[in-house]
Write a structure and sequence with these properties.
It is a single chain. This protein has a 5-stranded antiparallel β-sheet, with helices on both faces. The chain has helices at residues 5-29, 32-55, 65-99, 118-124, 142-150, 186-222, 232-259, 272-287, 307-323, 371-377, 383-393, and strands spanning 103-107, 113-116, 155-159, 165-173, 178-184, 268-270, 292-297, 303-305, 330-337, 343-349, 397-403, 407-414. β9 and β10 form a beta hairpin. The chain has 4 domains: 5-94, no CATH class; 100-184, Beta-Lactamase (2-Layer Sandwich); 188-259, Helix Hairpins (Orthogonal Bundle), CATH 1.10.287; 268-418, Histidine kinase-like ATPase, C-terminal domain (Heat Shock Protein 90, 2-Layer Sandwich), CATH 3.30.565. It contains 11 helices and 12 strands. By secondary structure, it is α+β, with helices and mostly antiparallel strands.
């Protein structure tokens, strides 16, 4: 509702004209005192109209006050209708949020709970009276407090209750404050644990018979017995498959230990120059002079972490490059720091390359871009899965750039705080 002096005067002009004419007439006929009385009555009339307007009572039908009251009522009616519409929309939004299986907790800039949906209340045990309370006072686990104040990524939190529960928490920035996403992944964690335990136990059980099988095959192939010559090709093929099965079992055991977090707390300073020399020797033996190998340690900085896991990460990246680079190709291995001060172990090759659509799935277990070529190269399909889990243990990441028929570059990137 637009109100201005000109608008008020336009609605008041009839009353003003009447009072003006009456005042002028009385001033001429009855004197100035009577004319002044008329003006005082006019002012008192407006004071009465103002009082009735502010009290919400109907004003007298004269001047601009009826128009002003009608406009005010229309404005109030539109405002109430808008508020009712917003209230209904808010109820619908809250119903949608309560129907979500993911818990949502809105925090202000100080970490105090502003609101939460039903799933968050059930997962975290929150009550309405907890609004306004800092969430760190309700979830006092040290790892949660550290993650809330400065952590990144997804937090996997084990709740110390009678029945252990596993929660996954994520943060989304708000202006101001933070939105917490909470999921109960206890069932997923139980399934994953059962799968890890089964793989670990099955691999342990298979290791012994495969070792015996390999041993007898080695003895048979080492003998020069004419009676064995007709079956020698079959024995050699069996030995090759036994070696492949042995490699798969060893990789499964390595992957199982990484998934279970074994060795996570075993941190030491790893001499990268010495490790690069060892990797160079292993690569030369694996390549058999079929490739041009270039190793460069471009920084004197070392890494802090689990030496055996780091060796497994690097050797898997190098062995992949050797297996998938044709004879006469070039493989470059480089340890250096990037602009952010992160440690980068980089392996570049002139191999067959990887189509872009396959890159997101490279670290899945047993995933193969070309099954026939992978079997010929002797890979187990677990190397990059081991790399991914090993990097997660060291809070690192894997970056892949590849062009088919040109080559690939794999980078194991470690956080700056792991560089010493």
């Amino acid at each position: 509702m637009h109100v201005s002096i000109s608008t008020l005067l336009r609605h008041e002009r009839l009353l003003l004209l009447s009072v003006g004419l009456l005042t002028a007439l009385l001033a001429v006929t009855a004197g100035a005192e009577v004319a002044l009385l008329i003006l005082v009555i006019y002012l008192v009339f407006h004071l009465i109209q103002l009082a009735r307007f502010l009290a919400g009572r109907p004003v007298l039908p004269a001047g601009f006050w009826p128009w002003l009251q009608r406009g005010w009522k229309q404005t109030q009616w539109r405002r109430e209708r808008r508020m009712r519409r917003l209230a209904r929309q808010l109820e619908r939004d809250e119903a949608v949020l309560d129907a979500l299986p993911v818990g949502l907790v809105q925090l202000d800039g100080e970490g105090e709970i502003q609101r939460f949906n039903r799933a968050a209340g059930e997962i975290l045990g929150l009550r309405r009276q907890d609004c306004g309370t800092p969430i760190r006072h309700l979830l006092r686990l040290p790892e949660f407090v550290r993650w809330l104040t400065g952590g990144d990524g997804t937090l996997r939190l084990v709740m110390p209750e009678a029945r252990l529960r596993v929660l996954a928490l994520e943060k989304r920035p708000l202006d101001p404050g933070t939105l917490l996403l909470v999921r109960d992944i206890t069932n997923e964690a139980d399934v994953a644990r059962l799968r890890r335990d089964f793989v670990a136990n099955a691999s342990h059980e298979l290791r012994t018979p495969v070792t015996v099988f390999r041993g007898y095959l080695e003895v048979l192939l080492a003998q020069w017995d004419p009676a064995l010559q007709p079956v020698r090709p079959a024995l050699e093929q069996m030995a090759q498959q036994a070696e492949r099965m042995h490699a798969i079992i060893e990789d499964l055991l390595t992957l199982s230990s990484l998934e279970q977090g074994m060795g996570r707390d075993q941190r030491e300073r790893v001499d990268m120059a010495a490790l690069m020399d060892m990797l160079h020797q292993e690569a030369a033996q694996l390549s058999g002079k079929r490739h041009a190998l270039v190793f460069e340690c471009a920084t004197e900085h070392d890494l802090r972490g689990n030496r055996s896991v780091l060796h497994s990460i690097f050797s898997n990246l190098i062995s992949n490059a050797v297996r998938y680079t044709p004879e006469g190709g070039r493989i470059e291995v480089r340890w250096h720091l990037n602009e952010a001060g992160e440690g980068v172990f980089e392996v570049s090759d002139t191999g067959i390359g990887i189509p872009r659509e396959h890159i997101p799935r490279l670290t899945e277990r047993f995933y193969r871009v070309d099954t026939a070529r992978s079997r010929e190269s002797g890979g187990t399909g677990l190397g990059l899965a081991i790399v991914r889990h090993g990097l997660e243990m060291h809070r690192g990441r894997l970056e892949v750039d590849s062009t088919p028929q040109v080559g690939s570059t794999f980078r194991a990137v470690f956080p700056a705080e792991a560089v010493t």
